[in-house]
């Protein structure tokens, strides 16, 4: 594409979606406010935070557009502060440069009317050089990180400051209301090993695990939310970490394609720490019950942001809700000690959308009262 | 609470309480601590009640478990006093305490006194009912941050009473320079007469009870029989033991919910397991990890910065049933350690690395290395691979459990992991590679690609190959079929001395001439070491040198009446 068109689009597209302030600057007025982070909407004096969660979005096709339209409606009706994207941001083979047209066609245009920051994580297709999504070209994921810093981006919505990162929301810098922990699961589980030793477990997986563990365990955020692409547990075709892609794995050569090390990674970082874990990879919607090895975390799989797939084994793991064959997204509202979660279905052919399931439940991890 | 106060007071103050004028040591320091009053001894006119000797184990920097048992029919809740001294003549007593021998723990006594110095040899003895126990010797471990330049351990396993004399224990007892004895399991065997024994020794080493052991009482009697053996008693008397069980402490090829050698006629396996575990904790000098979960015995000992000794349970706490078909061995849902223990092991390996320990030693039961009829290239995503496995009771039967451990070693870039193994009554030295049949993953000529090493310990008395000739034949075959195998001897019984310095971790195999009679004869068989950072074995011509000036062995004192 030409520079002119790009500049034109940049002016056309809504830009300047602001990240919710991290600072405790209060609402300007000093004194009486007891809760810091006065920029947050209050409800009966309670802090709250609302966000949308989508995944496996980057087709640029009808499904993605319909989901985006439905998100706009829900946002308008109920509000949202930001969007989580659980990976596979650019199908099928990621980006080949920071100027890749995919950023425009598969992200900026579909979400042009959603004036919110998006926090994205890397999926296997973001690191692939074939339509298979084998995940052996991790260099490609780096272009998505670069895009975050690029002067040439069309809007400021794309947030991926690193391959794995954390992001705080609300509260004070010392005690955010929520902290998001984003994992780069591709080098940990790819179908085919990256020949570049920089992405081996020793050089990438383990340093990431140690850092992530340190971030999570030292964080004093009230809500801790983890996001990764490959599921920890799933009733879809990819299955559970430890036995990912059972029945297909004979096609793979990746040493850790079964996800056993990845399972240990997630447990060692997030067990009894995280309130929620968002993943994608399977193109459907699932709310899975907490698993003992991960503690009380609510596990949500939202991978139906553009493509659809069936629930392969509905009984593999106990669920609160699961739905295949539809596109969709999740809307979450966090309060001080409660969370309200809604699952929306979007018809991938016609674009009709509806609330499929909702539930209000207590915050999974009850923090000890801070003295 | 009173007892604890008493123990604390006496240990902290390092008082010789002067209870026993025979020991002299009435402290003239003039402190005015009130003497705790000793419990009243019941009247007794029988023989010396210390029939099963003394034992110690699970050394920590300032604690060691001290064990004995009282045999005084008709009495219950008998007070037993222990004294610990810095010298074999029991002159400088630094600790005194007491506990009660009770029927509900089979009259065994286990104390865990607080001792003043890490990395120090102590001497101890019990007294009760007017008698002294034999004199015991034990040693605390160094503080975990201490700089330690050398440690030596004896490694033993598979001691079957009716199969022969415990000459291995006898030889280990004579070595004064050991930090501890590591027992990798099969300390007792559950069989009845005629099931698994050397028929020639039937009259000399009769079994008690004379039937397979199933109930708590059976297991207790079997331990009592073994502890009556002079050589085993002597070994316990001289060294602290660090023990884990293998299958025969319950029944052959045991797993979480069953065992090959358990049938429904023997009642519920859970009851049998509970009985076996209880008797084990009563009779072995082991410190319970969790007071309410005796099945959990996996635990770690830090010997300074030199090594972490991580003891595992591959038998009872997590193991799924042994596979029968090759594809079952690759089932990712089957586990050898159980998920909790596996997580714990990974955390321990990481902790060991981050605390700067030089060696990470896994003391466990069954062979971790691949053992095949011909190693071929393996792929973790295929349901077959690696070649035909010989024994599904080993890690070979739990493909994903092994892969997980080797993957963690790889991911952590953990150098200097050494796996110690018992269970199979023979001597082996291996390089550990996830894929030993793949020339791209492991080079059998120089060991490139090896992640760790494994030393397999021969049996104290249980048999393997019936003749030396067969053993050599098997070696020739196995050696060509398993490129990561460096040495195997399937014939001899014996033990291993593990010598650890910052430069090397060396295993010296010592083989016995015979176990059919009491004998002092042993031969040095072989030595293999792994040099620091190499993660592969290499042969050494000479066994490691003994430590200069070890603390003297505990002399054999004649039993003497306690002077009141």
Automatic annotation (TrEMBL), chain A:
Name this polypeptide is given: Metallophosphoesterase
Alphabetized InterPro entries for the sequence: Calcineurin-like_PHP (IPR004843), Metallo-depent_PP-like (IPR029052), Metallophosphoesterase_PAP (IPR051558), TAT_signal (IPR006311)
UniProtKB keywords: Hydrolase, Signal
Domain Calcineurin-like phosphoesterase positions: 49-284
Keyword Ligase annotated: no
Signal peptide range in chain numbering: 1-23
Transmembrane segments: none
PANTHER family in the cross-refs: TARTRATE-RESISTANT ACID PHOSPHATASE TYPE 5 (PTHR10161:SF14)
Organism: Isoalcanivorax beigongshangi
Any coiled-coil regions, as ranges: none
From TrEMBL, chain B:
Domain PhoD-like phosphatase metallophosphatase, chain residue ranges per copy: 153-509
InterPro entries listed in its UniProt record: Metallo-depent_PP-like, PhoD-like_MPP, PhoD-like_sf, PhoD_N, Phospholipid_Metab_Enz, TAT_signal_bac_arc
Domain annotation Phospholipase D N-terminal: ranges: 52-140
Region described as Disordered: spans on this chain: 28-52, 527-553
Keywords: Signal
NCBIfam families: TAT_signal_seq
Protein name: Alkaline phosphatase
Organism: Isoalcanivorax beigongshangi
